[in-house]
């Protein structure tokens, strides 16, 4: 059943992107896509709904000053904040910013990963921002030249997310040494962009089916960040070995991991970890785990390659906890 639901999602989403971008007739569409298949607002299977008992920035929960539930983070681009039930301002809390894929929203991405519902048990704050809408009505992040500002918008998402993080630190009891970004597809691209631009404030990022600048020199030298790159080698949207959108190239998953390993002063060669079962639709422990150790300030880099995995894997029950384990092993 899970496989059928995800297959339907991919088929409908591919059709929608073809109509929106006009690239469906391109003979080399897997290399020349102009959109990326983050979850569709109308087709996402909502298997992991956020816990409705959690305190929400848009709700009526009585939160300690200076938090004001009537004024969520982000001003005219409000971002949903989900606090653990035990939240109080006498201690500091890790912060995870979740960035959605192209055409999706923060809450839909949260439903896919089941992130915020883990906030109580693991004790962290979740922030769910939304990208702006392009001419076709699809939400996107202006991350790199390849992904995913296909309409030529002037929106500065680096500034928006930087301001959002600064506001969160001012108004919430955020542990400034434990700030993390996590994203899927276009959100993965944007997570890498924030690691470049705001690396001195971010402990680690995780990207599923995302990539980075094609030219490594476009990534600003603003600190070392722990990096987890997760990618299916059968992804036909954001290709495992790299490709391009609308003539703008992006690097492959291994190249991105190796760049960050070099940047973080890690060992030149990765070590092979125990294979993992990350995708329910692929039999057995299908995912190869590679780890770069010996990194400066313990800013580790890992590459999880899902053999036979597509752009929207049917995530295993412990997938998100594995990702959180990696993220929370890092602090500034």
UniProtKB/TrEMBL annotation:
Bias (Polar residues) ranges: 27-40
Pfam family, one: Esterase_PHB
Species: Persicimonas caeni
Keyword check for Hydrolase: yes
Keywords of this entry: Hydrolase, Signal
An MF annotation (GO) of this entry: hydrolase activity
Protein name: Polyhydroxybutyrate depolymerase
Signal peptide start-end: 1-20
Entry's transmembrane regions: none
Region (Disordered): 25-75
SUPFAM superfamilies for the chain: alpha/beta-Hydrolases (SSF53474)
Low complexity: compositionally biased ranges: 41-56
One cellular component (GO) term of this entry: extracellular region
